[in-house]
Automatic annotation (TrEMBL):
Protein name per UniProt: Alpha-1,4 glucan phosphorylase
Compartments, as annotated in UniProt: Cytoplasm
Organism phylogeny: Eukaryota, Fungi, Dikarya, Basidiomycota, Agaricomycotina
GO MF: glycogen phosphorylase activity; pyridoxal phosphate binding
Role summary: Allosteric enzyme that catalyzes the rate-limiting step in glycogen catabolism, the phosphorolytic cleavage of glycogen to produce glucose-1-phosphate, and plays a central role in maintaining cellular and organismal glucose homeostasis.
EC class name: transferase
Entry-linked CDD domains: GT35_Glycogen_Phosphorylase (cd04300)
Species name: Lentinula raphanica
Length: 823
């Protein structure tokens, strides 16, 4: 059975303790008697790693021997979080390790806290990649991830007493060995930048000179849940091709010698902390090419080992582009096929367009990547030639289908005219791919009807589809909410191995919503999760949280489109309302604790001001003795995957309140609902499909719908109405902020002006309906039993949102790959 078949080394408590002690004495070269928690964690991790390595090795050998078609997930971000707990759960060894660790005099929870998050991502896109790796391995699919091994992950966020966000580096590897990766110093590729590209006969070219750097592989093991299949995430590190430039070194020019080695190492030094705003930085383009070139060289080498002709490439390889960040894979594969493999253009283009798939994650214009042509020509001269050639053939085809339509040609061109000209990466990704998809139904429809409309008209609709995002129920239920997981298994009378890999089984919980005893257990677990969060806040921030209040949570990157501003203005409105009430009226009010967490891009001034307003509003509101039993606000610094694992199971309600049409999908919305939290949200992204699944009566929707947004923005531009007229209650809140209720009002002027002036994200338009939705939440919460029923029904109906479902859709309808079980 699964219980035995996939574990090879230490499966019983005595051998586990023995192995841990062994690692303490040998791998760590320490003594068992004066070991601290960190040492104990490291030794326990090395012990689990022994299991992972055997499974990983067997899996890779098995894949090589069977040579199935494989899929490669190219993502510049993998927001993995911690691995130890996840590995233990996937191997089914958590309880044995807990026992062993206790026997050795340590506490499991304390050891788990020792691990640093692998935070190689910004937010949703990076966490999605991590969930998809978990699901690929769990579904026994031959999928590898390819990314970069940044020395520094997403910055650590500090909040100053004034409420300013401060950024500190995240040297996540500094603590010594990372037990979850295998350095593969033998797996290296040379990657070229700059130089010259000289055209040769037959469409080929010779690219030479410039700078060459080395890509070195580090393999991160990705265990599946209850299976031997352990997939691979290959992360590239850059290093100088030779230690440093010996010629300069010998000539006494030490600085120049070290400079070239520094510039090579710089490529993978840090994750760019922006999401949704592009800056056109040369180093970022270098990262993108370095990573796509190394990954493709690796993929091509593996394909060649099978010994098939290149025409069979699409039968063995599928490449998924996670947004446009890896789009250079398209011209790079063309370059390899044409210049190195001497395949003619037409055949090469056929191979590429049958191999590559593109997922779009946003329709916001400022997030669509464009690279200046002069920069591309300088850094990647051969790729720029190829892009021009692709564009020429493509526009000829468009002209043939739509003769004389010059506007259309200008709109569709890979090159945007201007000073400088720019390469439109989404257009390149689209025409170079077999399929293009969005990440929720509404978003995919917006991709088809807005940013890629011309391409749908040209190529027909069948290439453009939808794969609604998903989340892994292993991390986002079993791991983060073990009590709920246990209750579900007990109630369904099945081992969790069954429902965790077939999440539709949660439907069988539905009848238990009517069972008072079950509801009591359900509510008690939510309560204990609230206490766990309160304990976390107490120990990390020294603040006491009222666990008898409703927990209301908004955790995500700070961005105007996500409208944390709407939330905090709503909080202030609630505060003003409470202040005006009599003591008797206040008695009827539902106590509420509002949590915020999230990072702002370091250069995003308005987002940072929003944090400042939240922190200062919290300071004033929490200190008010008249209201503090009824309303408190917390901004939890340094949001991370690990913090999410504590926050999500504790929420009664969470907020997903983007302006309609702006949030492609959202994935934390799914995590909250899976844990029995209810949503307050706009009719946007995956909120819509969640409501379809769980029932609209279990979601608190508000706000204008997507089709209205464009018209409203037009009105705001050309027929502005002052906030005082459009929305008096909001005007009052803005006045309080401006008049200094939360510290120097002048500080917030730029933030308030975004609302008073164009109000691009339509806060004035949605404010009243938002306040109305929150009132409905209060009303519903009064009926505790009915609320718990809603909570149970929500969890029960979340099966669709497993990332297993999503990854199987990619596997079956895009990649055409099948499970390869490692027996
Ligand atoms: C080009 C660069 C500035 C850039 C870097 C990162 C642009 C975008 C991003 C990240 C985007 C992102 O995280 N998008 C989110 O993807 C999730 C997974 O599909 C969605 O659920 C979420 O709605 C979307 O905002």
């Amino acid at each position: 059975t699964w219980k035995e078949g996939f574990r090879s080394v230490n499966t019983e408590v005595p051998s586990i303790t023995k192995s841990i002690v062994n690692h303490v004495q040998t791998s760590l070269a320490r003594q068992a008697y004066n070991l601290d928690d960190l040492g104990a964690y490291q030794a326990a991790a090395l012990s689990v790693r022994d299991d992972l390595i055997l499974n990983w090795n067997e899996t890779q050998m098995h894949y090589t021997r069977k040579a199935p078609k494989r899929a490669y997930y190219l993502s510049l971000e993998f927001l993995m979080g911690r691995t130890f707990d996840n590995a233990l759960l996937n191997l089914g060894l958590k309880e044995q390790y807990r026992e062993g660790i206790t026997k050795l005099g340590f506490n499991m929870e304390d050891l788990l806290e020792q691990e640093r998050d692998a935070a190689l991502g910004n937010g949703g896109l990076g966490r999605l990649a991590a969930c998809y790796l978990d699901s690929s391995a769990s579904q026994e699919l031959p999928v590898w991830g390819y990314g970069l091994r940044y020395q520094y992950g997403i910055f650590q966020q500090l909040i100053s007493p004034e409420g300013q966000q401060l950024e500190q580096p995240d040297p996540w590897l500094a603590g010594g060995e990372n037990p979850w990766e295998l350095p593969r110093l033998d797996v290296t590729y040379e990657v070229r930048f700059y130089g010259t590209a000289e055209r040769l006969p037959e469409g080929r070219a010779l690219w030479q000179g410039g700078q060459e750097v080395l890509a070195v592989a580090y393999d991160v093991m990705v265990p599946g849940c209850y299976t031997k299949n352990t997939n691979n995430l290959r992360l590239w590190e850059s290093k100088p091709k030779r230690g440093f430039d010996l010629n300069s070194f010998n000539a006494g020019d030490y600085e120049h010698a070290v400079e070239s080695s520094n510039s090579a190492a710089a490529i993978t030094s840090v994750l760019y902390p922006n999401d949704h705003t592009t800056f056109g930085k040369e180093l970022r383009l270098k990262q993108q090419y370095f990573w796509t070139a190394a990954s493709l060289a690796d993929i091509v080498r593996r394909f060649k080992n099978i010994g098939k002709p290149f025409s069979a490439f699409p039968d063995y390889v599928a490449i998924q582009l996670n947004d446009t960040h890896p789009t250079l894979a398209i011209p790079e594969l063309m370059r390899i096929l044409i210049d190195e493999e001497e395949i003619p253009w037409g055949k090469a283009w056929d191979i590429v367009t049958n191999t590559v798939f593109y997922t779009n994650h946003t329709v916001l214009p400022e997030a669509l990547e464009k690279w200046p042509v002069p920069l591309m020509e300088h850094l990647l001269p051969r790729h720029m030639q190829i892009i021009y050639d692709i564009n020429l053939f493509f526009l000829q085809a468009v002209e043939k289908k739509f003769p004389g339509d010059r506007d259309r040609l200008a709109r569709m061109s890979l090159i945007e005219e201007g000073f400088p000209k720019q390469v439109r990466m989404a257009h390149l990704a689209c025409i170079g791919s077999r399929k293009v998809n969005g990440v929720a139904e509404l978003h995919s429809e917006l991709v088809r009807t807005t940013i890629l409309k011309d391409f749908v008209e040209f190529e027909g609709p069948s290439k453009f589809s939808n794969v609604t995002n998903g989340i892994t129920p292993r991390r986002w239920l079993d791991q983060c909410n073990p009590e709920l997981s246990a209750l579900i298994s007990k109630t369904l009378k099945v081992d969790k191995s069954v429902w965790l890999k077939d999440l539709d089984k949660l439907k069988e919980l539905l009848p238990y919503a009517e069972d008072a005893g079950f509801r009591k257990e359900w509510a008690a677990i939510k309560q204990r999760n609230k206490e766990r969060l309160a304990h976390h806040v107490q120990t990390t921030l020294g603040l006491t949280v009222n666990t008898h209040a409703m927990f209301d949570v908004q955790i995500k990157r700070l961005h105007e489109y996500k409208r944390q501003t709407l939330n905090i203005l709503g909080v202030i409105h609630r505060y003003l309302t409470l202040k005006q009430m009599t003591a008797a009226e206040r008695k009827k009010v539902n106590p509420r604790v509002v949590f915020f967490a999230g990072k702002a891009a370091p250069g995003y001034y308005i987002a940072k001001l929003t944090i400042r307003l939240i922190v200062n509003a919290a300071r004033i509101i929490n200190a008010d003795p008249e209201t503090r039993d009824l309303l408190t606000v917390y901004f939890l610094p340094d949001y991370s995957v690990s913090l999410a694992e504590v926050l999500i199971p504790a929420s009664d309600i969470s907020q997903h309140i983007s302006t309609a049409g702006t949030e492609a999908s959202g994935t934390s919305n799914m995590k909250f609902c899976l844990n029995g939290g209810l949503l307050v949200g706009t009719v946007d992204g995956a909120n819509i499909e969640i409501a379809e699944a769980v029932g609209e009566n279990n979601v608190f929707f508000f706000g204008h719908l997507t089709p209205a947004v464009e018209d409203l923005r037009y009105q705001h531009m050309y027929h502005p109405v002052p906030v005082e007229e459009k929305c008096p209650p909001l005007a009052k809140v803005l006045d309080c902020v401006a008049s200094g209720m939360f510290g120097d009002g002048g500080v917030y002027e730029p933030l308030l002006n975004t609302i008073r002036q164009h109000d691009y994200y339509l806060i004035t338009e949605d404010f009243e309906s938002y306040i109305g939705a929150l009132a409905m939440v209060d009303q519903a919460y009064l009926d505790k039993e009915e609320w718990i029923k809603k909570s149970i029904r929500t969890t029960a109906n979340m099966g669709k949102f497993s990332s297993d479902r999503a990854i199987l859709e990619y596997a079956e309808s895009f990649w055409n790959i099948e499970p390869v079980k490692v027996a």
